[in-house]
Design a protein that fits this description.
The protein has 11 helices and 12 strands. By secondary structure, it is of the alpha+beta class. The strands form 4 sheets. Strands 8-5-7-6-11 form a 5-stranded antiparallel beta sheet, with helices on both faces. Strand 6 and strand 7 form a beta hairpin. The radius of gyration is 24 Å and the shape is globular. It starts with a strand and ends in a 12-residue tail after the last helix.
Length: about 350
């Protein structure tokens, strides 16, 4: 949406050429697994409203978490995950639930009892990850916190220990003091001894058999819908999903998704991950130049995805140029009025 004369930055993502850059369709050399893209365009960098930029940013966050896990292994530290949730209803706005949850967490982590348990576990470092989905009971804001503790402390970090019972009681009290509540069985979970891939999955990342990392843009029936599930529904005309998407973007712009304990990132920033190199036939190369006049028509018609998909499917410059000419004519003969309707 626009505020006054200012448009949201996502309106310019892959719609405006980058400064002093030419626009190209990029294509790989594989006929069997053909893929295409766009180069020379501005991106918005919005993590809460743009699925393209969010994927890139969240994957970078994920790789930092992988480095942290690698650092922990080198220094005989073990990750322990604390998950905090609260009961929520469809009547709660995202702002109300998020703010109350954050206040409850501040109450929780400032309490003397929590500091005593941190000392008992001898926690060295931590990473906090926030997640938000929308389900049958409305907005679900929750936290996953990875604590890194010496191996000797892991025996304390599992359910039904004295520490977990005490933490659960403290979290329930913190929620109550800030206008929220939860059931004792689901309010708090402390888990340890799992593989690193499992921790990454709990934080919303997928790791394939080759070790490549991807961020999960979509939810499921158990986890609820992500903001980009709502965006897709809005694209197909779901007005309620559209209102939820706008509520999310308005409330979450500028929100921190991942935070690190003081000085932790500096300890592992030089660690190199052993990710496999992309096969040569999957590397995207400049394939077809597009002039700015033509690109303006494509962007205003919201047909960027059509052009990229057709490039990957056809792999035929002549045929793709015909599509580009058709889109240009469609826009510039329409008196600059958006035209919906599929290009065949």
């Amino acid at each position: 949406n626009s505020t006054g004369s200012n448009r949201h930055r996502t309106r310019y993502c892959h719609a405006v050429p980058a400064f002093n850059q030419d626009i190209y369709i990029t294509l790989n050399s594989s006929e069997e697994s053909s893929s295409a893209g766009i180069s020379g365009m501005q991106t918005c960098g919005s993590i809460c409203s743009c699925p393209v930029c969010a994927t890139q940013k969240m994957t970078r966050y994920g790789n930092d978490i992988r480095k942290a896990l690698a650092y922990a292994e080198l220094h005989n530290l073990r990750p322990v995950m604390l998950t905090l949730t609260a009961r929520h209803t469809r009547q709660m706005t995202l702002k109300y639930f998020k703010d109350a949850f954050k206040d409850a967490y501040n109450t929780f982590q400032r309490h003397r009892k929590f500091r005593d348990i941190k000392n008992t576990l001898n926690i060295k470092h931590s990473i906090i990850s926030r997640e938000i989905t929308y389900g049958s009971n409305g907005w679900h804001y929750h936290m996953h916190i990875l604590y890194f503790v010496p191996a000797s402390s892991v025996r304390h970090a599992h359910n039904k220990t004295e520490e977990v019972i005490s933490l659960t009681s403290l979290w329930l009290t913190s929620l109550e003091l800030n206008g929220l509540d939860a059931t004792e069985d689901h309010a708090l979970d402390l888990s340890s001894g799992k593989k690193n891939k499992v921790y990454l999955a709990k934080l919303g990342y997928e790791v394939d058999s080759q070790g490549d990392l991807a961020y999960e843009l979509t939810g499921n029936d158990n986890k609820g819908k992500t903001v980009f599930d709502l965006l897709r529904l809005a694209y197909f005309g779901d007005l309620f999903a559209e209102s939820l998407y706008c509520e999310y973007v308005t409330e979450m712009t500028g929100h921190k998704w991942i935070t690190w304990s003081n000085g932790f990132k500096a300890l592992f920033e030089d660690i190199e991950l052993d990710d496999p190199d992309l096969p040569d036939n999957q590397v995207l190369h400049k394939w077809l130049h597009i002039d700015s006049w033509t690109w303006n028509a494509i962007a205003r018609l919201n047909k960027v995805h059509v052009v990229v998909k057709c490039a990957a499917r056809w792999r035929d410059k002549k045929r793709l140029r015909q599509l580009l000419y058709q889109l240009s004519d469609e826009w510039y003969n329409s008196e600059n009025k958006p035209i919906t309707g599929k290009v065949k």
